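chain and backbone:
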Amino acid sequence: MTAEATISSHILYYTCIELQARGIAMEGLPQWPTVIRPVLNMQRPRVSFAQSQDLIQRALALSKDPDLGVAVGRRQTIGSAGLLASGLLASATCGDALALGVKYHRITGSMLDLLFQKTTDDVVMLRTTSRHPTPQISAFLVQELFTNITQIARFLYGQGTAVKQVHLMFTTRNPALYRTTFGCPVLFGQTDNTLVFSSEVLAAPLDTADAYALPSILAVLDSLMAQEQANQSFLAHIEHLLIQQIAQSPTMEHIARSLGMTERTLRRKLTQAGVSYSELLDRVRQGRAVELLETDMPLADVAQHLGFEDTRSLRRKVQGWTGHSPKALRQLRR
């Protein structure tokens, strides 16, 4: 597991809220101090894809609910989309709002890829593909996203069922949950994950449409999207350098020189990306530590690889990151 590019903790917040509502304690989880507590305190930390996957996997295990993503999706409203919600509401039609959501969904921290495709004169399909190899995580993400989209579409359409049919690659022991959630036929074990809309629904005008406000909203969304893409590229580059040089405990000044900029410029750019150098270095170390502790590498070698002076420093840091000693963490992972 490596740190690499980060995303918004949007989906993790609603996942943690759902677990809390079910009375599931999370304080003892390895991710509590570095991810869960900041998320619940609404500090809006940016987390790596690997961290997100790990937390979702643990949430599924703790809840013992393979349909957990549906409940997480239900916890959200159109307002949960943040600034993107303004664009959805100002769009001329349901179809325009859906297309806008597909274009800008990345700024909400979405972990799926979306494709908006018209297949016939009467049918438009929204397909999603996952970059996550774990079937359980992929199913969770599709459940959450499709439930959220359906609720937003229903709110915008305002005339009952907005989705015509749902195709899902996974299966479930509770098909009634999905029929109730989507309000339409749901087919399981399909070749792709798809929401099917009729052209009639997508052509429906929105009562909230605002042709005057929309251009200004789109300008803001374009700016956010460009900043998000720039931040991802910039952070991924720095984290790649840190991973390569982690054993030497590189300073900010050293990384700045590697990037051909001053330390002050690097600090400013990191601030704009919502992270400090120490947080980034710590995150990379944590990712590599967890990865190396899944192997049989001796602790002394792990400490040296991560740039720690001795195993005592490594133990103290791992305890702070995960709430477990390296030995206990290895036992948990096996």
